[in-house]
Every structure is written in C-alpha cells, then in structure tokens.
Amino acid sequence: MNRSQSQPAVFRTTRRVEFCHTDAAGQMHFSAFFLFMEQAEHELLRSLGTSVLCHDEEGKLSWPRVEAHCTFHAPARFEDLLHIDVWPEHVGRSSVRYRFRFYKDDQLLAEGTMTSVCCRFGPQGPQAVPVPEPLRSQLLARLPSSPGKDPQG
Question: Which DSSP category does 46 fall into?
C-alpha cells in the first residue's frame, strides 16, 4: 500500500475547555494543554485498535511519558471548543514522539510534542520493550512523507 492509499496522517479530536481547565482570568491553564495532549494520544491509540493500557500473553503494557513540550501562541478560554490534531513525528524501537496542534476555528493556539515509551510492567517495574506489531506499522503509516515535513503542509 502506498502513502496516498494509507490512512490520513493527522488524527483530529475535539475538547471543550471546562471551568476546571481555566485560571482566575477564565483562560485555559497551561497544564490543561498537557492533559488534552494525553487524551488526544489515547484517542489516537483507540482509533488504531489498542489502548494506552493493554494486556497481552506476556502481561501488562503501557506508555509512560518521558518528555513533553508545549508552545503557546494565543489563549483558549472557558467553553471554547478546541480541535486537537495529533500525529506521530517519530517512531523509534520502543518510543513514539507525537506532535500536537491546538486550534479554535482556524486559529492556531498552541503546538507541542510528547514522547511516550512502550513499557512492560513486571516485578522490577516498567521495562522498555519494542512497539508491538501491528501498531508499529500503523504509526509508521501516519508519519509525514519525508523527515521533518509537517503532514499538514
């Protein structure tokens, strides 16, 4: 299957800014952007037939975050409906770096990245393991067509 026949690279979800996500001025608190990024990652994984927490024949797998970054361009406010775009920017042996963009209508409000590591949880705690197939193939199919290229143009 070639790139033009694969799933679109960008997964879009929406979230409404609730009062609990805001500061005293009614603007979305910076920490809520990270919560929304994590929720968007979870929805992307569910759309690919898996979850951020799952079990296989060897035990429990999950995706702890090891890095997160967000740059803010404009405020989001109480009751704004945000569109959140997420796509894998890099798929490593056991990690995935996702890129996120937050929009209100067509206005870019924030953009960020988050790196998650596929880990098996056992008696010694979390241990990094390779990203399982077919998830790895599905994530690779969503990468931008050339390194460093934004899938949105």
Answer: H
Domain assignment present for 63: yes
- Is a pLDDT exceeding 90 seen at residue 38? yes
Query: Tokens at residue 105, please?
Result: 């209508």
pTM: 0.88
The strand ranges marked E within the chain are: 11-16, 53-56, 59-62, 65-72, 81-91, 95-104, 107-117, 119-122, 125-128
Domain of residue 27, residue span: 9-141
Q: Are 70 and 33 in contact (CB under 8 A)?
A: yes
**In this structure, is residue 150 part of a structural domain?**
no
pLDDT (tens digit per residue) in 45-64: 999 999 999 988 888 999 99
